[in-house]
Every structure is written in structure tokens, then in C-alpha cells.
Amino acid sequence: MLENKTQDLDMNRDDFLMIRDYIHEKSGIFFAENKMYLVKNRLSKRVSELSIKTYKDYLYHVKYDTSMKEFHHLMDLMTTNETSFFRNEPQLQSFSKEVLPLIIDKKQKEGGAKTIKIWSAGCSTGEEPYTLAMIVQEKLATLPGWKSEIVANDISEEVLQKARKGEYSGITLRNIVPTYLTKYFTKSGDKYIVKPEIKAMVKFSFINLNQPRMISLNSNCDVIFCRNVMIYFSDEVKKQIVRGYYNSLRPGGYFYIGHSETLHGISKSFKLVYFKNALVYQKEDSGTSKSRPALSATLAGARKHVTQRASSQGATTGASKAIDLLSKIKPMTVKK
């Protein structure tokens, strides 16, 4: 009987747009119109479970539920949580072998606190932050006095519960080397449970990335991971979120996004750094930037030359416009 109700409940375009716009307003997640079937498919069973007869009535139910429980349930249904341990190995190699040593070296030279703060935004069921915890644990094991703080959050309460539990099986474990499975997990039947010392390194919490205030609560981060999360947001929300990430990073901090993602058209605040294993965005540290003054001086001289020549000819040239554009481009840095 329940199956028949689910099949009979139709979603029209107006229903879809109302629900789509509400989800976008509250979470920043955006569904194009060609995703109407996907939204219907994910919602139909829930609407039937609640014995609600229309999608419009369901939306009212979500809006006026002061406990926010149904909103969280809606977010659980609408978010995609495909992940695994040690996902995208090249990025993690750059983090382990290149970025972490640079951060540690910088902090040692400055004589600051021996703490590395990492933020895993959109952490899903916990595989990414636990992966980072294992990498950091390996790196800091030989450095007395050093500690880490790993913050991990998500909009889905359901996946956060799974992350805190730390029990995994099947394909999500496929990239973990056997030595790490033995060292950092306890086997129980067909499940592998994250050991307490790794669990203790990660603090899980709820976050709605569409709320700038919540992003601002995470500050002084050395590294932020937000991989394959922003692909679900509209460009307007992406810009807002990336501004928040920029402000949450320490000067010189690093920002990882998905290997197929880009900040092109989203933000010009970050510098793109070419490491051996991956491309990583960085918040520039004004105290260490040496190339820009020389570049600025060169462009200023070129602009003066072009302007004088154009004036003598009684006309402007496209070269002056090109130089203006070049002056706005941040130089890329190559790390060897």
C-alpha cells in the first residue's frame, strides 16, 4: 500500500521550484530544473511515510517544524555522501610530504604554538578527517611537543552520527594500506573500527555552510579541505563560502578543493601553488611575498612607456589595456 502511495504522488514544476528554492535559501544547495526527478525520487518515500498528500504540504511541514528535525531529515535526503578513506591520493601526498613540512618549518622559525589546525568542511561519514588524522599522527610522531586540532563538520546529522561511531566496512576501505588498518583500526567481524587515539583527534559538529556566521566560528586554520562539496552550490553561495574560508585561514594557509574543481570565476583572493603532487590554493602571507613588488614595478614602467607613446601618437593602444589586465593577475608559485 505504501508503495502505491509513493508511486501515485506526483510532483509538478511548481512543487519542485518551491522545494528547490527553499533548499537553496536555507542550505545553498542548488538543483537545476533537470534534477526534478532526482528531488522527487528522494522525497517521495518520506512524504508517504508522514502520510502527507502533497509536496506543498510537506514543505509547510518542514518550514513550521520549530524543532528543525524535519529540516535535518530533508538535508539527509538531499545530500550526496559518496566518500572513502585516502580519496585522491595525489592531493594527500602533497598534504603529507609538502604542505605539512612547510607549515611545521614556518611555525618553528616563527617560534609560535606547536599546533596544526585542520578543517574538513563537508566531512560526510568521517573518512576524510580520519584519513587526515592518520597522516598527521604519522608526521608528528617524531616531533615532541607538537599537537593537532582537526575540526570536521557537515549539514547532515545522520552522517555525523556515523562519523562519530567510526565503524566502516566494504569499498570505503579499499585505499587503506594493510599497515594502517592494523595500526589505526580494530577489526570486529566484517567491520573496522577507528581506534580511540585517532577518534580523539577529530571534533565533529553540525554546520550549514550557507550561514557565514557558522563559518566564522572556525578561525586560524592552517589547512582547509573542502573537496567535492561546493559542486552542489550555486555560484553566488560558492563565492560567499570561499570568502569565509579565506578569512578562516591563517596567512600562508592552504585550501584544498576537489581535483577537478576550480576557483575561476569564484575568487581571486588565493594564490595557486604548483606542488609536485597537486595544485593547491594558498592564502598569501604578505611577509613572505617577494615576487609581486618586482612584477608591479615592471608593469608600472611598461604602463608609463605605453602611455607616453600613445600620447605622442594621439591615440590609445590595446597594449595599455593588456597591461592593466596583467597587473591584476597574481603570480603563480612553483614549489619543488
Structure commentary:
With 336 residues, the protein is of the alpha/beta class. The protein has 3 domains: 2-78, Chemotaxis Receptor Methyltransferase Cher, domain 1; 89-282, Vaccinia Virus protein VP39 (Rossmann fold, 3-Layer(aba) Sandwich), CATH 3.40.50.150; 291-334. 49% of the residues lie in helices and 16% in strands. The chain contains 14 helices and 11 strands. It has helices spanning 2-8, 13-27, 36-49, 55-63, 69-78, 89-110, 127-140, 157-165, 178-184, 196-199, 212-216, 235-248, 291-313, 318-327, and strands at residues 115-121, 147-154, 167-168, 185-188, 191-194, 202-206, 221-226, 249-257, 271-274, 279-282, 333-334. The strands form 2 sheets. It has an 8-stranded mixed β-sheet. Helix 1 packs antiparallel against helix 3 (36-49) and helix 13 (291-313) packs antiparallel against helix 14 (318-327). The longest helix is centred in the C-terminal third of the chain and has 23 residues, at 291-313. 30% of the residues are buried.
State the CATH class of the largest domain: Alpha Beta
Structural class: alpha/beta
| Count of helical regions | 14
Full CATH superfamily name of the largest domain: Vaccinia Virus protein VP39
* Mean pLDDT rating: 86
How much of the sequence lies in strands comes to 15-25%
Element string (H = helix, E = strand)? HHHHHHEHEHEHEEHEHEHEEEHHE
Uncertain residue ranges: 1-7, 289-323, 325-329
Number of self-contained structural domains: 3
| Through-space gap between termini | 64 Å
Largest sheet: 8 strands, mixed
Adjacency order of strands in the biggest sheet = 6-2-1-7-8-10-9-11
Total number of beta strands: 11
- Give the proportion of residues in helices: 40-55%
CATH architecture label of the largest domain? 3-Layer(aba) Sandwich
